[in-house]
Amino acid sequence: MQKFNHLSPEQRYQIEILNKAGTKQVEIARLIGVHKSTVSRELKRNTGKRGPHAKVYSAKIAIDRTHERHRLKRKKIRFTEALKEQARMWLEQDKLSPELIAAQWEKQEQQGVSHETIYDWIWKAKKSRHSSLIQDRGLYKHLRHGKRKQKRGNYRQNRGVIKERVPIDQRPEIVQNRERLGDIEVDLMMGKNHQSALLVMTDRATLITTMDFLPSKEAELVKAKIEQRIEWIGPSWIKTCTFDNDMAFALHHEIRDKYGIKTFFTRPYTSQDKGTVENRIGLIRAFLPKGTDLNEINDQTIAEIEQKINNRPIRKFNYLTPKEKLLSYKTVALIT
Hints:
It is built from 14 helices and five strands. Residues 147-158 and 332-336 have low confidence and may be disordered. By secondary structure, the chain is of the alpha/beta class.
């Protein structure tokens, strides 16, 4: 039997459904592929002790508690000057990517920051005029794709030419029919003066939507954020991703090759080809109107808006919310 130290969100929803059905813990463990002690520990830790959730295991509460623990754990690790100096050395001298730098710290059992934090630092320094960041303005040039940004004029002339691009008309029929989980539309919602953005990813079947802040639309940073979300969701759940022809998505093939996710691109200047995510962005704009400086919006606010979008009843779902629709899909998957 395969064992996992950490439960994924989908495994927690499976535990909730099976536990409510009266399934024994040993059988739950077998069905979701973990050790029975993992299930036992999860139920003890996240079964309500009092109030409306007394004696009830809630996957949502368990996931929220896990995220909060991780948030507090990350909060304790500051990106100190000593860590920045080490990162500079690995970037400039060893040409390590932020992913490899973060892995080095983990390998050495040293407390370091995530690769997303390193990317944020690099792109912030590139655009900043603050004296404390002057020495780091050129760090982006040490990224594998950093120097390519100097050819931006050529990119503009070849806006629709993306490496290994597959047009949307080759997308499987099942994607169009919204018959399964994991067919994702991806787009950027730009902030004030196009200086920052939100990465918005929407599942076509359930309308579940995720939102992540991007300090810029550099392709390397966009790829890193998409990969971060894929890891959080669980790569096995995602079947396809559909993008528009923005060069921010130029590294789609690296995501495809890493996770086995098929990638497709809309017709140029045809927003209706990704109307699902466009619709969700329209809802987000109600909270963050055009002209909003996204640099001034903190992660907690973004998370709260995401929660509101995903808990908003949908008429075509008979007024189920996207979260409830997602749970219904997972229930069917367990039964069948």
